[in-house]
Each structure stands twice: as C-alpha cells, then as structure tokens.
Amino acid sequence: MKAELTNKFFEKYEQQPTAHYFTPGRVNLIGEHIDYNGGLVMPCAVTLGTWLIIAPNNDNVIRFTSLNFEETAEIELKPSYTKTGPEWFNYPLGVFNEILKKHTIPTGLDLLFFGNIPVGSGLSSSASIEVIMAYALNDYFKLGYEKIELPLLAQKVENEFIGVNCGIMDQFAVAFGETDKAIVLNCDTLKYKIVDCNLGDYSLAIINTNKPRKLAESKYNERVSECQTALAQLNQEIKLNNLCELTAEKFALHSHLITDETVLKRATHVIKENDRVNLASKALNEGNLAEFGRLMYASHQSLKDLYEVTGVELDTVVDFCSDYEYVIGSRMTGAGFGGCAIALLKKGKEEDFSKQLTDYYVERVGYPASIYISEIGNGASVI
C-alpha cells in the first residue's frame, strides 16, 4: 500500500512524499447508546482506515486530494478558516483551523488521502480523517501535543467546525487503538483502560447493511430526550448526573419514578448495557470468547426490544449470525438505524459466511450487504 500510494502521490504532485501516516476506523464492540448517558463503551480499532501522504511545497498553500473523492482544493495557508460546504476536505481543513489558533505552520503542504472505510457505514471515517490530520501535523512539525490532546482536538473540530455534536469515543478509539486490544472508556470522566482482546481462532466480520445512517433524519435525538426525561424523573428521589451512575439494583428500587413505559424501556437498556460492558471486560480478561459472544447477542436484543434502534436490515444480519454455526457473537454497532453489524467469525469460514449471508440478506432485504473481514489493529501511527 505504501509503495502504491507513493506512486499516486508522485503522479499528482510530481515530487516524492516525505511522510506517510495511517489512522484506523473503529467499531464499538459493546456499550451502545450509553455514551451520552455517562456510560462505558468498548471500542477497538480495525484494520480498515485512512492513509495520508505528505510533502511540503513552497507555494504557501494546502492542497487536498483524495483517491476516494473527486473534489480537490488548493487553499492559501492563513491563520483561520471557515467551513466551505459539505466537501470531504472540510474535515482536515477544520484541523488546520484549530491548530493554527496556537501554532504557525512554516510551509505549504501537498496532501494525498486514501481510505478504505465505507463512508456512511458508522465506522468513523470522519474521525479517522480528523485524527490522522492532527497526528500528522503534530508529528511533522513537532508541535508538542500530548497523545490525549489529539482526539480532544479532533472532537472539537467535529463539534464546532463541522457542526456535528458527537461524543469522544470515535476520535479516542482511532487514536488509542492497539493490536488485539479493546478500550474500556468512561464517557463521563474519560478514564480508560486497555483490555486484552485476542480473538484467537476468530476474526471480526464487519457487515455493512448498505442502509446509510442518517441520524439527523432518525430518532436518535428522540432517544437522547427520552433518557433525559428518565434522569429528571429519577432525580425526584435521588441525585444523579447521568443514568449510568445507577447500578441495576439501585435502578430497580427507583424505577417506579419513571411513569412512561417507553421511557422506562430506554432507561432499562441503558443500565443493563452499562453492566454488560463490565461483564464483557471480565470475559475478555478471562479469555472467555463464548461469554463475550453471548453478551454481544444480549446487547443486540436489548437495542432491538428496549431501545428500538435496530431495524430490519440489522436484525436480518444478526438473525443469520445466530443460526450460523461458526459465529459465536453478533450485534449492531454504532447508532443503529442502518450502518453496520459485527460478528465473531471462525477463521477459514469467511468465504462460506459471505456467500450464505449474502443470499439470506438479499432474499429478505432486496439488495446485498457488504462484508469486510478485519483484525483488531493499531491506532494512529507513522508508516
């Protein structure tokens, strides 16, 4: 890949690149729709990701080119920028805007991006682009940012420059991922721990339903509001900053305060899903993949029945996986309403799995899913 991209860079810019970087995408293994409730999430980096090739120029401009998108840009290097529209290069441009508030970049740059993360799938292609740009500028110009500062900077770009009010999980996971490791991240405190996640005889299958996630058009904000309602009603008797401060036992004592059946279902998912992350961490530490897989299925069932964010496409994938002999766990990952599911698939069964799942999915949904096989990989790095 490095040699191929180097050749593409030379074709475009007629000079050799001077640095190469890679940042992965991510999946969340378990812990869904609890990030905005102060809960625990368990993301990992995948081996799909974004490459960035760099060389300086003497023209005082930033040139953005991608092998994935037709749009290019040549933008004068100056102290600040504003978002220019929906084009992909606004994500790295936002990183320049943030970094230039504190640092001077002494030269123009020619940039070539390439990614193999399916856009709109929920695998964090935008976070991967933001973090790789921040990581590259910090490394290339020796700006002195600590590693923890880079995902926070990238999140700020997403929130303030791009205008998407995301949490920290995506940027954090693609920056801090490690091979055969998962991250247990407390979304309230940003405290985290790295847990072993050696899948052994299994690979991580990522199944893109090819129904794009359109959260602005979904009921995502409605779920957030329902959780806020549950929190307000619980605070009539107990004082909580977020739902995930509650244990299951304490929730059972006070759940009568939640008067709406739908809101109660949402809160029940949140409390139980947070517990599942702790149980999943324990299972991984013990090397108990069968138990981890069981928790994956339980998570999906809760997201289907209590949180109601799965839909026919994601349910079809997980239904197939639950009956397929060589899968030990599967669930939707991300916000739902489309996007991706994941499965722990026995190595050597990739071709059979892909064929059988495709037939099953097309028969029920009407169009094919896309299937990717990944390992758990490293976070942002120089290549």
Automatic annotation (TrEMBL):
It comes from the Bacteria. The record marks 26 as: Transition state stabilizer. Pfam families: GalKase_gal_bdg, GHMP_kinases_C, GHMP_kinases_N. The active site is at residue 170. It catalyses: alpha-D-galactose + ATP = alpha-D-galactose 1-phosphate + ADP + H(+). Its main location: cytoplasm. The keyword Isomerase does not apply. Keywords: ATP-binding, Carbohydrate metabolism, Cytoplasm, Galactose metabolism, Kinase, Magnesium, Metal-binding, Nucleotide-binding, Transferase. Residues 8-56 form the Galactokinase N-terminal domain. Catalyzes the transfer of the gamma-phosphate of ATP to D-galactose to form alpha-D-galactose-1-phosphate (Gal-1-P). This is Galactokinase. It comes from Pedobacter ginsengisoli. The gene is galK.
